[in-house]
Amino acid sequence: MVIHIIQRPNEVQITDARIQTQMDRINRDFQGLDDNRSLIPELFHENIGFPNFEFVLADEDPNGRPSEGIIRKQTSINNIGSAFSRDGKEAIKFNSLGGSDAWHPDSCINVWVGATTDFFGFAAPLDLAGTPEDGIIISPEAFGLVPTSVEEPVSTGLGRTLTHELGHYFGLSHVWGSDTTCDNDGDGIEDTPEQEVIYTQCPEFPQVSCNSSDMTNNYMQFTNDECLLFFTNGQAQRMRDVLNDVRSDLIVSSNNVQIEDELSFEIRQSLGSLEIVREKNTSNFAIVSIFNTSGQLILNEELNSVNVHTIDTNNWPRAVYILSILDANSRFTHTFTAGY
Ligand SMILES: [Zn+2]
Asked: Could you tell me the pTM of the whole model?
């Protein structure tokens, strides 16, 4: 990971110590090191899951020179985190626009910290994976452990904006999905309840919508940092799938990442179609599902028992899609881009 700090001289400057508090926060959150289960309603204890990712600052710059993984630049641009060039590029992500160029976006998570006007954090969609615009923007008042001298640190003061944005970076949508209704599949994750309310602050348990109790403590909510407490097993699995597939160049060592592709398929893609080819001895019953990165279910059908299962992708919007094949006890996932 590399942290680009782009600030005006008159702002409260982000120190190395504060960057360390941010790294500690995401590592604790992604590995479940905070023993905060007592704050999580018992109803959800069986759903708690952790991806077990460990994040480290880059120790080499793009030219191979030793580095701390931190870049600091002064700017004269107001709210550079929300500034765009005329052709729609985010200024903070480019030297030529007064920001800071990404370091190898395929093998390094780029995080830009700069003042914003309309959001605390923003992650580039998965479609931009590996491009110069891939990465996350965080506003300084939501970065790391915010000193109490900074005004109103209450809702974003514990550094969990980056936890939430990393969830997006690894393919998660908000718990409520692409819209706040009960009649679609929400976020495409099986073990997060359907939800039609967007919660803020720290609502008391229980909060019910769509006939079930909502997971207001999930990291993929808009509630305050102090009550964002867990990912689910399904979310952790989705993030590991995205890491192992679209973002596999980020993996330095995989001791802690379980790869569970036990089913074996060859995926062939051509203009307008996707073919799933069974490899030997996998003729058992299986379901194929495809989600988009907002978590909407695009397709859900039984896998043909014949060798090749063809999916027509004509007229699909250009986007990244996540395919998963599940049988009674194993799973296979594959991420692909379709649509032209
Ligand atoms: Zn979000």
From this structure: 0.81
